[in-house]
Amino acid sequence: SATAQVDSLSKRVKDAEGHIEVIEDKERRFDKLAAAHEVLKEEVVGLQRTREEQAQSIAALTESLRDSGSKSNDLEQKVLNLSIDKDYLERSLKEAQVRADRSETQALQLEDEKRGLERRRSEAVEQLMENQRHAQADYDRRLQEEVGRMRAEAEASTQVAQKAMRDAAERETTTLKELNAEYQRERDHWRLRSEELGSQME
Question: What pTM was computed for the model?
Fold first, then answer.
């Protein structure tokens, strides 16, 4: 029936709207992950820059030891400390690089998924608009049908009323004719009766 079709279209519209909300929520989460990935890349760049600076410091201190021709305990300790820091920094950098690589892979996957979500969202929006157009068209059709039905009923009622009025007028005319004929008969009867009485009196 038309009502069932409208209900079905309304449900499809609501389903499409819900699907779009889910897609947009996923897109927001992907944007947050992408932002975290950018932060991680900046961390790797910072560690690489620090590593380069420490390598330069170690090289400078080593050169100073070589130029002085003596073994300064203080310089040796600084070199040792920097070497330890360098080892720690290398490990931290490797770990950060692993995380960055993993994040890069995940970011690429998420980007593919996001493109898929954007495509599905576009399709869902188009479907929503199509459902709304169908719902509006169905509503307009039902409205026209209802207006047509009411107009037909009104015309039928008018015709019935007009026929009833004609029938009543015809009955009234017939009744008046019958009354007039009865009146004529009565008048003729009494006229004849009066003439008869007049003849008898003569």
Answer: 0.37
CATH code matching the domain that covers 2-153, chosen among 1.10.287.1490, 2.60.40.10, 3.40.640.10, 3.30.200.20: 1.10.287.1490
Complete DSSP assignment for 152-176: HHHHHHHHHHHHHHHHHHHHHHHHH
Most confident of 18-22, 110-114, 185-189: 185-189
| Nearest-angstrom CA–CA distance, 198 and 202 | 7
Return the domain boundaries, the chain: 2-153
Q: What is the pLDDT of residues 141-172, one digit of tens each?
A: 888 888 888 888 888 888 888 888 888 888 88
Distance CA 80, CA 202 (A): 176
Average pLDDT, the chain: 73
